Amino acid sequence: MRKWEDNSWSMGDLKIQLPVVQGGMGVGISLHGLASAVAAQGGVGVISATGLDFMKQGRTIAAEIRAAKEKTRGVIGVNIMVALRDFEKLVRESIAAGADIIFAGAGLPLELPGLLPEHCRTKLAPIVSSGKAAKLIAKRWQSRYGYTPDAVVVEGPLAGGHLGFKTEELTDPDCTLESIFKDVQRELEPYGPIPLIAGGGIYYGGDIAKILELGASAAQLGSRFVTTAECDASPEFKEAYIRAKKEDVRLIESPVGLPGRAFRSDFLQAVARDEKRPAFCEFNCLVPCKKTQAPYCIAHALINAYRGNMEEAFVFTGAKGYLAEEILPVSEVFDRLKAEYESGRES
Fold first, then answer.
1. Is the preceding peptide bond at 75 cis, omega within 30 degrees of 0?
2. E strands within 82-195?
3. pLDDT at 272
4. Residues of the chain with CATH 3.20.20.70
5. Beta-carbon count within 10 A of 173 CB
6. Predicted confidence band at 293 (pLDDT cuts at 50, 70, 90)?
7. Pairing state of beta strands 20-22 and 123-128?
8. Between 291 and 224, residue with greater pLDDT
């Protein structure tokens, strides 16, 4: 019988007890509250840096990291979107504050190792959705910096939020997490053993077991942790998950030019009727955002979601977010993941 506790793994000298990486969810969904709770259970807790500067609550990434580390001695990572205009600034601040890992996605972090100070222990983990992207990053890091990724996150088409795929790929039956994972494995083989973390559509412990059998060191879970007591989102945001049904999960087009996955909402229906076009850009936060053509301001929508103003918001979700039924402590979620892993329950 397989045992949950037998799955400890490492990123270099960083030891991690359990094969769980909590997905970094912005705006304001995974801050120090959720990240510290996951880290305390033996997984990797991840703070999302997205949106901290325009939440207007005096939050900074450094303060969030320090607050998380005051609550736990576990592993704390930070998710920073390459598409953010202040990407480099956030990386430097996160490193200075003692982040254990920088997860970088929503773009290719080709120069990320160049931001590491000498003798820094912070690990670097790019997020990719193809073997081609993984190879490009690894090759650049190796040739320019003599640096190999400490881990690589492989995100499949069932993930939530912005997705690194063409819209047609998201409905292609041959485009699966498993196939992309094998592609990344193959492309990274020349660079030595690199821990791979797989995410997108992983919800139950049996899903984790399945991806570990493919050779992953850990699984990334986002939606499963939204409906926890420690999640930093508003009660209204969490309730959207509890109420949702499978048919409420929708693919949408984001102003940043990427497809995304979210729950159906009145706000998104108004967007479809062209009723939410912004008068001006207040934040100038994302490099790819087509501000003059945007059908709505994604920053405003996500801030409203975090605050619980759901009439002017929508909720990003993974493909299986609708499975949530109740709000639980993070510790109870880990207990259930253990039972599901050992029994083989899959979604």
1. no
2. 101-105, 123-128, 152-155, 161-162
3. 78
4. 4-234+325-343
5. 5
6. low
7. unpaired
8. 224
